[in-house]
């Protein structure tokens, strides 16, 4: 126990500490104001800066093998902080207008972020589990933040019940892995050279772990909760949990799977790979095909998020250096795209819950040129059209799959991307080449510069990262060094 | 391999047999003079009034939830107190941190009025 341990955990401490501070502030201050949001951003910025400094330092394992402090964990910490900042910016007007508990919202997104940091830097399965639970419980509450709306309550209850069930699978998986390897510590696990009792128990443990994770990222057979939850939850919360939450789950998957001792699985490794590859292929195809027929934009984004989980699973299936780097890159890019997309939806939706149909976006370019322009950039990036960052994210994932000998999976990915481009481009067609359907345009007239700044920043980042993908690939080049 | 289970199977047989024989022996041998009181379901305490499936005020659940949180705090305190002299000052600091974090939650709960019944 020494100071370097605390420096390694400092981003985590800052995020959780700011959350507690806001909770205390909220207990004494009765009038809603912007102060918690500003404090949230300050905390997240500080955490990101510390993580950035830690990233350049030497890699280590803090607290006697409980917490990684390396390029991988710090990269994800920066991503989560960025997501928190963007969400706080987007939430400003939205929350004050809907008269939701601003203090609680800010404290909960910070607690969720601290859970995510634990997941991305956990060197012990128990730490990862703790992080997963911290994040999930914050999300359950956030989904039900609109206490008087039935949909929001439904979303929270559904998410809680199914999430708790999935947690059971996850925990049982950890127990079986512990039973067969004799340790829950990832560092100790990767140092095991000969495994005497491998076989079905370890395999079953890993499969249960995959079930738990697949639920959290809404991959194909475990995705049913996603459309209802994302639709019912406050829009900015949907954006936050479908991106940062997903990125956190993927960081934990990568940590666990890359720590599996070589030879422990023997013939099982190929079986696990085929399971993950099948999940990836089904998620990509199912998510994109079902998204085609959606008429509500939030449900469409939810199904497309299942498809994006499929793309990310491609990197897990490959599980080579390219795959891990590709997951980092795509997680960052996807986070920018999806949060910005939900941000625009939040900007345009009405208090009564209208303005959420795809038809409401017809002729948007004439009425709200900036919103339409930004949404067009985001949709092109989500579809993976070259000048934008989404293209490079997908490119590295497909490259990783091909390097790992999973060419068929890369082909499935490309085919499903082509399917997906239909519903992404349809929104652009609606906005630019169609006349509004109703005289009353069905879309709220909210002028909110802060939201525009956040969405503009994210879109600008998509363009810059698309033109200079080296910025991201350099940041991920340090994995486990 | 399976011979290891023989003692276990024997023990289960003895346990089941003992239970069945004892219950039936008392039935055969004992005198039986049933009365209204004797036939009623045994309950300790008061005679039950009404059904148990009643609606409980939602406030009750908040109090129950908070009770569990602080109950768990106590559960954590016990093992710490038992091994306190072995793990020393660091654990003292950690325990104060833990209680401090819960205390922030407690302040929040009190200030938000979760403990006021009306």
Structural features, described:
The complex is a heterodimer of chains A (481) and B (118). Chain A has a domain at 285-481. Helices cover 75% and strands 1% of the residues of chain A. Chain A is built from 20 helices and two strands. A two-stranded antiparallel ribbon of chain A has the order 1-2. In chain A, 58% of the residues are buried. Chain B is mainly alpha-helical and 118 residues long. Chain B is 69% helix and 0% strand. Chain B has four helices and no strands. At the A-B interface, helix 2 of A face helix 4 of B.
The number of distinct β-strands of chain B equals 0
Helix content of chain B: 55-70%
Tally of helical runs of chain A? 20
Q: Give the CATH architecture of chain B.
A: Up-down Bundle
Mean pLDDT of chain A: 86
The biggest sheet of chain B amounts to: none
Based on secondary structure, the structural category of chain A is mainly alpha
Pick out the low-confidence regions of chain A.
Answer: none
Top-tier CATH class of chain B: Mainly Alpha
Most extensive chain-chain interface: A-B, 7 and 9 residues
Report Rg of chain A. 21 Å
The 3D shape of chain B can be described as flat
The fraction of residues in strands of chain B falls at under 5%
């Amino acid at each position: 126990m020494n100071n370097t341990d605390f420096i390694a955990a400092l981003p985590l401490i800052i995020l959780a500490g700011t959350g507690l501070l806001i909770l205390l502030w909220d207990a004494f201050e009765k009038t809603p104001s912007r102060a918690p949001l500003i404090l949230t951003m300050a905390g997240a910025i500080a955490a990101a800066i510390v993580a950035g400094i830690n990233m350049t330092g030497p890699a280590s394992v803090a607290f006697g093998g409980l917490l990684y402090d390396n390029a991988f964990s710090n990269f994800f910490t920066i991503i989560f902080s960025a997501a928190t900042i963007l969400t706080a910016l987007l939430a400003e007007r939205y929350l004050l207008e809907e008269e939701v508990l601003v203090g609680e919202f800010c404290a909960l997104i910070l607690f969720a972020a601290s859970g995510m940091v634990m997941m991305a830097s956990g060197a012990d399965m128990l730490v990862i589990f703790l992080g997963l639970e911290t994040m999930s419980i914050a999300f359950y509450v956030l989904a039900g933040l609109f206490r008087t709306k039935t949909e929001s309550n439904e979303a929270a209850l559904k998410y809680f019940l199914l999430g708790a069930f999935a947690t059971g699978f996850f925990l049982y998986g950890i127990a079986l892995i512990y039973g067969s390897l004799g340790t829950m510590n990832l560092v100790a696990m990767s140092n095991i050279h000969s495994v005497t009792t491998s076989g079905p128990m370890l395999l079953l443990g890993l499969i249960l772990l995959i079930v738990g994770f697949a639920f959290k990222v809404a991959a194909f057979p475990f995705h049913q909760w996603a459309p209802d939850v994302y639709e019912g939850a406050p829009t900015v919360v949907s954006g936050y949990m479908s991106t940062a939450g997903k990125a956190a789950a993927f960081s934990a998957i990568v940590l666990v799977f890359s720590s599996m001792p070589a030879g422990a699985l023997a013939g099982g490794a190929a079986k696990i790979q085929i399971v993950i590859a099948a999940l990836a292929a089904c998620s990509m195809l199912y998510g994109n095909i079902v998204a085609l027929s959606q008429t509500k934009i939030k449900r469409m984004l939810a199904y497309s998020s299942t498809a994006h989980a499929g793309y990310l699973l491609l990197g897990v299936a490959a599980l080579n250096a390219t795959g891990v780097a590709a997951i980092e890159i795509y997680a960052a890019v996807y986070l920018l795209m999806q949060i910005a997309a939900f941000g625009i939806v939040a900007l345009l939706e009405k208090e009564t819950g209208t303005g959420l149909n795809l038809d409401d976006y017809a002729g948007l370019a004439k009425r709200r040129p900036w919103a339409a322009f930004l949404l067009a950039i985001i949709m092109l990036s989500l579809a993976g059209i070259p000048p934008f960052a989404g293209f490079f994210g997908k490119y590295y994932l497909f490259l990783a799959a091909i390097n790992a000998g999973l060419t068929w999976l890369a082909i499935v990915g490309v085919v499903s991307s082509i399917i997906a481009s239909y519903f992404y481009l349809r929104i652009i067609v609606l906005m630019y080449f169609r006349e509004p359907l109703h005289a009353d345009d069905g879309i709220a007239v909210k002028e909110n510069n802060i939201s525009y700044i956040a969405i503009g920043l994210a879109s600008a980042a998509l363009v810059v990262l698309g033109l200079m993908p080296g910025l991201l690939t350099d940041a991920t080049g340090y994995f486990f060094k | 391999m399976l011979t290891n289970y023989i003692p276990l199977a024997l023990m289960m047989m003895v346990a089941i047999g003992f239970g069945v024989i004892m219950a039936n022996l008392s039935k055969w041998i004992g005198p039986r003079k049933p009365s209204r009181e004797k036939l009623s379901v045994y309950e300790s305490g008061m005679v039950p009034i009404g059904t148990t499936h009643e609606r409980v005020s939602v406030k009750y659940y908040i109090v129950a939830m908070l009770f569990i949180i602080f109950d768990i705090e106590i559960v954590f305190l016990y093992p710490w107190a038992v091994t306190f002299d072995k793990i020393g000052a660091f654990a003292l600091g950690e325990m104060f941190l833990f209680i401090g974090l819960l205390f922030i939650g407690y302040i929040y709960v009190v200030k938000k009025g979760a403990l006021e019944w009306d």
